[in-house]
Design brief:
elongated, two-stranded antiparallel ribbon, single chain, 4 helices, alpha+beta, 21% helix
Length: 190
């Protein structure tokens, strides 16, 4: 019952971008007792899905989480083992929300790394990158997403695509690293 009520609150929040009032919860949960709503709120607070801020209710990051049910083999099938932990994608994908941002990828220069046109990439803003990192860089006043490489003979850095139809990109004037890709997000079939 608590899971069902939590899902109703999530649907309400998604539609209205706020949690419902106690009065609205009476209708949402199809109950007539404010005590029933109070018990539900208390249970959801104890479970860490919502918190009380003054007289208001506020969702926690766990509220937005989706169930993490464990692992699933991509090889031979095994009996599924359900684990009721919750994981928010921002906690999993973003190391530092203050210095992280998203970009939509345009082009096919990183398909060898599994990054496709239309994917979202999580970039952590930093000027420190290592050879092999996929970086957001400004090379000769043009922005691009490529793999950072080091030419040990010339003692210089350059950018490389992960698609053989693109040549390496050596800076004519300058190259600045703006960030490092930390995650790729792709929706499968809309």
């Amino acid at each position: 019952m608590i899971k069902e009520r939590l899902n109703k609150l999530k649907r309400f929040f998604r539609k209205y971008r706020r949690l419902p009032t106690y009065e609205e919860m009476l209708n949402i949960f199809s109950v007539s007792s404010k005590n029933s709503v109070f018990k539900t709120i208390t249970k959801l607070t104890d479970l860490g899905f919502i918190r009380k801020v003054g007289k208001s209710l506020s969702p926690t990051s766990k509220f937005f989480g989706i169930p993490f049910l464990g692992t699933v083999p991509a090889g031979f099938p095994i009996i599924a083992d359900e684990d009721r932990k919750y994981l928010t994608l921002d906690e999993y994908l973003i190391e530092d929300p203050i210095t992280s941002f998203l970009f939509t990828v345009r082009g096919d220069s990183l398909i060898g790394e599994g990054i496709m046109d239309g994917d979202l990439v999580v970039v952590n803003k930093t000027v420190k990158a290592f050879p092999g990192d996929i970086v957001l860089a400004e090379i000769d006043h043009e922005w691009t997403l490529k793999i950072l490489r080091r030419n040990s003979q010339k003692r210089s850095y350059y950018l490389e695509a992960a698609n053989p139809k693109y040549p390496p990109f050596y800076p004519m004037q300058e190259m600045n690293i703006f960030g490092v890709v930390k995650a790729v997000i792709r929706r499968l079939r809309n």
